[in-house]
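ARCHIVE RECORD
Type: protein–small molecule complex
Small molecule: flavin-adenine dinucleotide
Source of inputs: curated submission
Record status: active
Notes field left blank by submitter.
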Amino acid sequence: MDFGFSLSPSSAIELDTLDSALYRKLCRIEPGARTCIACGSCSATCTAAEHSGMSVRKLLLGLQRGRKAEVERMLSNCMLCGKCTMVCPRGINTRRVILTVCRLYDNVEGTL
Amino acid sequence: MLLSMKETILVVGGGIAGMETAVQLKALGLTPVIVEKNSSLGGHVAQWNRLFPDMTPASKVLEPYDEALKEVDIYTDTEIASINSLQKEYAAVLSNGKTLRCKAVVFATGFKLFEAEKKEEYGYGIYDRVITNRDLERWFDTRSDERVPAKPAAIGFVHCVGSRDVKAGNSQCSKVCCITAIKQAIEMKELFPDTEIYCFYMDLRLFGKKYEDFYINAQRDYGIHFIRGRVSEVAETIDGRVQVKAEDTLSGKPVKVKLDLLVLMSGIVCDRANNELARSVSLPLDEDGFFRSLDNIAGVTRTDRKGLFLAGTCSGPKTVPETLAEARSAALQVYQYLKAKKK
Ligand SMILES: Cc1cc2nc3c(=O)[nH]c(=O)nc-3n(C[C@H](O)[C@H](O)[C@H](O)COP(=O)(O)OP(=O)(O)OC[C@H]3O[C@@H](n4cnc5c(N)ncnc54)[C@H](O)[C@@H]3O)c2cc1C
Ligand code: SF4
Ligand code: SF4
Ligand code: SF4
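STRUCTURE (tokenized, with ligand):
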């Protein structure tokens, strides 16, 4: 039956069922990643951010919330310049975080 | 040099503020008398298990007062029936029938913990799995509370319960509950390493020495999840757990999670039971209902009434070290006041 409208699937995040395996793997390798306070310094300083939406803050949040596709899209825009690492007030090695996430996606060594 | 003054000073309230004030007054050569409405001294601190920021057992902080207050007159289970301002002193009639003539009065009447059942949408007193920060401190002490499950898979902490909430009648921040939530979250994670723990916060206010370190440890070493968003409602699930709803404001999306235990961070609110007492000596109250200090910079322990002083959380939310510092300051203020009067 056509009611003239349709329901879109719920956009609610369900914390107990979402898949954050990748985030957990990342945190085992880079425990500092957990200390992000979402201050946004990394994105504010990022040259790629303006044109591509790259943001370490969103990357870390996205992984915690299981948004793998969004994170993957973002990663391809990073130039690995390391400016974000310079400004992070928590001293997170964001550049290494990005590289680690890339390796986790590729699972290069097959051991991560 | 100490003045030789044996004057009696009434200390109303025998929490940490009142006890410390009395110890200091005694050391200054005065004669403090503590009036405490409960059957024992210690106030709220006696209900806590371990204290931030050093995880000191609360009992260890209270213990030395047994000895230090040995020679101080203490009336427990006693209230102030009335206080009258005479020409040069105050006359307090106690509920035990005694009348005390005193040269000054220090109010150390403390605070009240926000009654969590007033925030009905959080289900305290309705759902079996919802407790408060006070209940959890008691559980750390006694390990007996039917509401705390043996093996919780997930635990949530709700910040700002009855604080920063105009509708709950308290727009102020309670100051101690962000760090208490993190302290308790870490304690639970130590007991239940496999449990997922979520803190729902509006802002994290971790102002004190070592507090930020607690936060970093909670994130990095204990993997506690911090979700920025105020819990809007709690519902019981069919299997007796609770489901919490909030907005994950960092993602801009609604968020839900099922929990085995939900801990509400009840805030520090004024104890309205003492309004009448304040009125009887014309002591003004602040808009937030706490006793009003002379000013909030250099006159926190003084009032605009002669011979009336304040110590501790009766003038607003404070930590234990802040309360102790104020108690010492109040004792000195009393001393200076009497000294000036003697001249
Ligand atoms: C959940 C929670 C956890 C906390 N944990 C910590 C911590 O870990 N570390 C830390 O530094 N701080 C902590 N605090 C803060 C700490 O509890 C306060 O700083 C402290 O209790 C203040 O002491 P007080 O004497 O001013 O008030 P209270 O502890 O409230 O004592 C007031 C006393 O006065 C009595 N009284 C009141 N009215 C009258 C009256 N009319 N006549 C006679 N007696 C009266 C009361 O019965 C009570 O005994 C915590 C607070 C909360 C809410
Ligand atoms: S390393 Fe990548 S994310 Fe960081 S500032 Fe450079 S381009 Fe942006
Ligand atoms: S700068 Fe560091 S703390 Fe701030 S959002 Fe980026 S990663 Fe997080
Ligand atoms: S200390 Fe934290 S939890 Fe307590 S009222 Fe302030 S912001 Fe809310």
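CURATOR ANNOTATION: The helical segments of chain A are 21-29, 41-45, 49-52, 56-64, 68-75, 83-87, 94-106.
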